[in-house]
Automatic annotation (TrEMBL):
Binding residues annotated for ATP, in chain numbering: 383-385, 484, 525, 548, 581, 661-663, 781, 787, 810-811
Pfam family, one: PhoLip_ATPase_C
Catalytic reaction equation(s): a 1,2-diacyl-sn-glycero-3-phosphocholine(out) + ATP + H2O = a 1,2-diacyl-sn-glycero-3-phosphocholine(in) + ADP + phosphate + H(+); ATP + H2O + phospholipidSide 1 = ADP + phosphate + phospholipidSide 2; a 1,2-diacyl-sn-glycero-3-phospho-L-serine(out) + ATP + H2O = a 1,2-diacyl-sn-glycero-3-phospho-L-serine(in) + ADP + phosphate + H(+)
Domain P-type ATPase C-terminal: start-end pairs: 833-1087
Family membership noted in the UniProt record: Belongs to the cation transport ATPase (P-type) (TC 3.A.3) family. Type IV subfamily.
Gene that this sequence comes from: ATP8B1
Name this polypeptide is given: Phospholipid-transporting ATPase
An example Gene Ontology biological process: regulation of chloride transport
Length: 1146
């Protein structure tokens, strides 16, 4: 009993989770969370020292060895891999790339091999073989061969064109040139001849030919600016900086020629933002990271010359691991579904109403297979920052030494409703863009009465990773994030301007006085630490640590004696209520001896070959404690245009929106404790009804809330883990054995594990049921892994189509987990876009993507499928009825060439055009009436019922097509006294009636008529008669007597009015009941679409001449603040804005 009790986690016995703390790192697996053991720091340090002392040992993580300017080193036997039998090749490949698949000799066999890996092609080949045997087939072999050759030929031509383009591209890339050191001098060398270990020189606007370690550049401190558009689609410049040692000694050609550095690093992999390695040179070791690596495909910008050492080349470069989004690879065959999907994707790409002109960003469909699912979305999971907001940060307020600054007040601290903007003309470095209204803060800065205020802005100017660029005497900042850029710009305007930095110094203008500080260490920011620190030595010799980060992590590391903790916390609550984003600032004085001891550990961790990040995090923790709080910043992130209107329309379309964000929670309408209680009560009720494990107990659907009320669920990441039983289990005090000692113990452990899994599954299902009863759900302080988990839970338990939308790298997991991923190309790079199925620049375009393109795509595909089944049932089942009268001889009811061309020519174009162009209502009406979207969510247009209706329609049509001509031909005499009831005339009559019927039927199914549709319908009928008369002519029979045996049939049969009357009667009997049924249906049981179509002209006129009032006023403060729900408890506006106006439509 004790073992079982220890292994379970209950709500009552666990401590309550911290609302604001992210529970664990996304890099940890669940097994790692359970099995982590505390590491012994002295042992880690000892290992690190041994690694540094003996660098020749082969490491587990760093098995890639590079020797500069030494090609023979990489040809040693232990670097050789066996490729084929005894043939060996160095693992260090040359730099030539090969993306093409075929050459002159391999194209035909390899292409056919690729195509015949498709099951459909193999099926047709088998069918062709059977048809070639006369004893078992009555159909001619060419009825299958012609379509098959057409499919194979078009696909082969497409593949050939693509591969020729790849050949040209490979040739062009491989023959590019750059300068490589050979025999002590830089010489022009083709890219394909570059090898690992070469030292190369690149110039401005050159492409980087391989992954290289930046050694030096012509810029101060060996800075190098690169554009990474070829890698991640981002056009903004990124900076790289070489090591100080290489910047100092490797600037000239002669020193680069004798450079003999040795590098140990990780093997090539797909992590573009991480790199771990160590440079051994001049009897010292230097840590290498991604900030010193230039990846192949980057372009050198704003840098005249740079030098680098090739780390990875050719097929081993990072670039080859990137997902390459080539043009859509679609087989241009008669596979109508793919053609329709391709066309619908292009319509999305061409939609000018989804084009964002400010950044020249069009909408992009990155897939062709999901268009119809856009019309069936039930749940949308959205990020907040950068997705719903602009991600353009503006410094608004701050709290310093417990005092809030940023309100409208004059220098005497008197508040005013109207006051002029602060004049920063006294500051030569002010950019003139900051709108600030608190004159009292400027008075305090200039007077120097409170040193904490100057210390506050100095921290903002020094604690960052921003790079400065001077253009025409103007200072421009290159920031890694909008938040950091806003804070550094704020410090600049308030008199503390960041001017320059080197590898070891940073220069600040403090109220006009330039001072340079030695940078002793930078403690990097990451998503787990949620803070950044810098250790500097002042000109006076003092050592200080400055830190900024999230309030949750900062407050945990503050000194016990911090008198302004509560005042700052109150200010954070106020900032949160105003929907401002906050950071806390703090500092610490460090003694020389303390820093010297810590620095030894820091240097050892910096060059650790294994678990470097973990080692550094532990060292950081040692120094980031006992901090002194200075205050907090508050910056504003405005809502994007059109977000309220978009959310309102999506809500009217019965689409539920869940917001999953890493920010702090802004309100709590449905508290986590009440959720906890509701779920606990539900679990008890389920146990009382037979337990979680009662598989055969009747399912009881009981709501969590009474009907008729709108509720919102706001939950944090730590509570999410608690509720879903995802948190780490408590460690048992009893020593746990690795293997059970007895069979009984093994059985008990297995049963306990099963009970826990069943409990966890039921708890997760209950949570999803509860959340789905709420009008809106907001998950705050969630990690990327938790975002994906929430999406997966809804997919698993609701069986609904989901869509995830985000703009940053932290949204990639969520985007990939959902059925459909949408990327916003905003301020946080292109990672989300590159991982998405669809992308555009603004959240407001989502309504058009779903309500217009998604809905149209769903309707078109459903119409196509229903018609496709109908026309083929009508065509095929005629053979079935004919078999009763031909002695089951397997004789076909049609001519062989008609069978060959029916789906290829006679009935293909109209349905393709309907699948591409049809629309029941216009795009404007689709947006005006979002409830039209519901038909896709409920899958009303294509389901089992609709399928069987199409089947029945096809059966009845086939019966009419066969039995009316059969009865008309029975015992009949023509005008010339001859009987027209021969087999060939009968086949022509049935085929003619079939072609006319199915083409007129597509006309009845078409809602949006254009000249193209009409031409395709009547053109297909005309084409049928033209081809038939040609195939029945005497001339073609003379040339191919065995293939064309219906000589003169068409001209003889169709000249008789009796046969035309038979065809007309057959078509009328097939179509008139359809017309009657549809008329009655639209009159008695009209759908929403039918009602709007009846009033289309009036509604269109209203839209043109009347301006409809909107429920939202863009720019109104009550609504604007409503959507930046990012921060602290007690703020009620956000969910009201999302839900209140939605509830009336439910």
């Amino acid at each position: 009993m004790n073992t079982e009790r220890d292994s379970e986690t209950t709500f009552e016995e666990d401590s309550q989770p911290n609302d604001e703390v992210v529970p664990y790192s996304d890099d940890e697996t669940e097994d790692e969370l359970e099995d982590q053991e505390p590491a012994v720091e002295p042992e880690q340090n000892r290992v690190n020292r041994e690694v540094e002392e003996n660098r020749d040992t082969i490491k587990k993580d760093c098995t890639w060895h590079i020797k500069a300017n030494d090609r023979k080193f990489h040809e040693q036997s232990h670097f050789m891999n066996t490729k084929f039998f005894c043939i060996k090749k160095s693992k260090y490949a040359n730099n030539a790339i090969k993306t093409y698949k075929y050459n002159v000799f391999t194209f035909l066999p390899l292409n056919l091999f690729e195509q015949f890996k498709r099951a459909a092609n193999i099926y047709f080949v088998g069918l062709l073989i059977l048809q070639a045997i006369p004893q078992i087939s009555t159909l001619a072999w060419y009825t299958t061969l012609v379509p098959l050759l057409l499919v194979l030929g078009i696909t082969a031509i497409k593949d050939l064109v693509d591969d020729v383009a790849r050949h040209k591209m490979d040739k062009e890339v491989n023959n590019r040139t750059c300068e490589v050191i050979k025999n002590g001098r830089f010489k022009s060398t083709k890219w394909k001849n570059i090898q690992v270990g070469d030292v190369i020189r690149l110039k401005k606007n050159d492409f980087v030919p391989a992954d290289i370690l930046l050694l030096s550049s012509s810029e101060p401190n060996s800075l190098c600016y690169v554009e990474t558009a070829e890698l991640d689609g981002e056009t903004n410049l990124k900076f790289k900086m070489a090591l100080e040692i290489t910047d100092q000694y490797l600037q000239r050609e002669d020193t680069l020629a004798i450079f003999d550095g040795f590098i140990e690093c990780e093997e090539p992999n797909n992590r573009l933002d991480k790199f771990t390695g160590t440079l051994f040179w001049r009897k010292r070791s230097f840590p290498l990271d991604a900030d010193k690596i230039l990846l192949r495909g980057c372009v050198i910008r704003n840098t005249d010359i740079c030098h680098g050492l090739v780390i990875f080349a050719g097929t081993l470069k990072y670039l080859t691991w990137l997902p390459i989004f080539a043009p859509y690879s679609i087989t241009f065959c008669l596979h109508s579904v793919e053609i329709i999907r391709l066309g619908q994707s292009h319509f999305i790409n061409w939609d000018l109403q989804m084009y964002y002109s400010e950044k020249d960003t069009p909408a992009k469909a990155r897939t062709t297979t999901l268009n119809e699912q856009l019309g069936q979305i039930h749940y949308i999971f959205s990020d907040k920052t950068g997705t719903l907001t602009q991600n353009i940060m503006t410094f608004k307020k701050c709290c310093i030494n417990g005092q809030i600054y940023g309100d409208h007040r004059d220098a005497s601290q008197h508040s005013h409703s109207k006051i002029e903007v602060v004049d920063f003309s006294w500051n030569t470095f002010a950019d003139g863009k900051l709108q600030f209204y608190d004159h009292y803060l400027i008075e305090q800065i200039l007077s120097g009465k409170e040193p904490e205020i100057r210390q506050f802005f100095f921290l903002l100017a020094v604690c960052h990773t921003v790079m400065v660029d001077r253009t025409d005497g103007q200072i421009n900042y290159q920031a890694a994030s909008p938040d950091e850029g806003a804070l550094v710009n704020a410090a600049r305007n308030f008199g503390f301007a960041f001017l320059a930095r080197t590898q070891n110094t940073i220069t600040i203008s403090e109220l006009g006085t330039e001072r340079t500080y030695d940078v002793l260490a930078i403690l990097d920011f990451n998503s787990d630490r949620k803070r950044m620190s810098i250790i500097v030595r002042t000109p006076e010799g003092n050592i200080r640590l400055y830190c900024k980060g999230a309030d949750t992590v900062i407050y945990e590391r503050l000194h016990q004696m911090n008198p302004i903790k509560q005042e700052t916390q109150d200010a954070l609550d106020i900032f949160a209520s105003e929907t401002l984003r906050t950071l806390c600032l703090c500092y610490k004085e460090i003694e020389e001896k303390e820093f010297a001891e810590w620095n030894k550990k820091f240097m050892a961790a910096s060059v650790a070959s294994t678990n470097r990040d973990e080692a550094l995090d532990k060292v950081y923790e040692e120094i980031e404690k006992d901090l002194i709080l200075l205050g907090a910043t508050a910056i504003e992130d405005k809502l994007q245009d059109g977000v309220p209107e978009t959310i309102s329309k999506l809500a009217k379309a019965d689409i539920k929106i869940w917001v999953l964000t890493g920010d702090k929670k802004g309100t709590l309408l449905c508290r986590e404790t009440s959720v906890n209680s509701l779920l606990h009560t539900r679990m008890e009720n389920q146990r009382n009804r037979g337990g979680v494990y009662a598989k055969f107990a009747p399912v009881v659907h009981e709501p969590f809330f009474p009907p008729g009320e709108n509720r919102a669920l706001i939950i944090t990441g730590s509570w999410l883990n608690e509720i879903l039983l995802e948190k780490k289990a408590k460690k048992s005090n009893i020593l746990k054995l690795k293997f059970p000692r007895t069979e009984e113990e093994r059985r008990m452990r297995t049963q306990s594990k099963r009970r826990l899994e069943a409990k966890k599954e039921q708890q997760q299902k209950n949570f999803v049921d509860l959340a789905c009863e709420c009008s809106a759900v907001i998950c705050c302080r969630v990690t990327p892994k938790q975002k994906a988990m929430v999406v997966d839970l809804v997919k698993r338990y609701k069986k609904a189509i989901t869509l995830a939308i985000g703009d940053g790298a932290n949204d990639v997991n969520m985007i990939k987990t959902a059925h459909i991923g949408v990327g916003i190309s905003g301020q946080e790079g292109m990672q989300a876009v590159m991982s998405s199925d669809y992308s555009f620049a603004q959240f407001r375009y989502l309504q058009r993507l779903l309500l217009v393109h998604g809905r149209w795509s769903y309707i078109r595909m459903c119409k196509f499928l229903r018609y496709f089944f109908y026309k083929n049932f009508a065509f095929t089942l005629v053979h079935f009825w004919y078999s009763f009268f031909n002695g089951y001889s397997a004789q076909t009811a049609y001519e062989d060439w008609f069978i060959t061309l029916y789906n290829v020519v006679y009935s293909s174009l109209p349905v393709l055009l309907m699948g591409l162009l049809d629309q029941d209502v216009s795009d404007k009406l689709s947006l005006r009436f979002p409830r039209l979207y519901v038909v896709g969510q409920r899958d009303l247009l294509f389901n089992y019922k609709r399928f069987f209706v199409s089947l029945l329609h096809g059966i009845l049509t086939s019966m009419v097509l066969f039995f009316i001509p059969f009865g008309a031909y029975l015992q009949t005499v023509g005008q010339d006294g001859e009987a027209p009831s021969d087999y060939q005339s009968f086949a022509v009559t049935v085929a003619s009636a079939l072609v006319i019927t199915v083409n007129f039927q597509i006309g009845l199914d078409t809602s949006y008529w254009t000249f193209v549709n009409a031409f395709s319908i009547f053109g297909s009928i005309a084409l049928y008669f033209g081809i038939m008369f040609d195939f029945h002519s005497a001339g073609i029979h003379v040339l191919f007597p065995s293939a064309f045996q219906f000589t003169g049939t068409a001209s003889n049969a169709l000249r008789q009015p009796y046969i035309w009357l038979t065809i007309i009667l057959t078509v009328a009997v097939c179509l008139l009941p359809v017309v009657a049924i549809r008329f009655l249906s639209m009159t008695i049981w009209p759908s929403e679409s039918d009602k709007i179509q009846k009033q289309r002209k009036r509604l269109t006129a209203e839209q043109q001449w009347q301006r409809r009032p909107t429920a939202f006023r863009r720019g109104a403060s009550s609504r604007r603040s409503a959507y930046a729900f990012s921060h602290q408890r007690g703020y009620r506006a956000p969910l009201d804005a999302i839900i209140a106006d939605e509830g009336i439509y439910r």
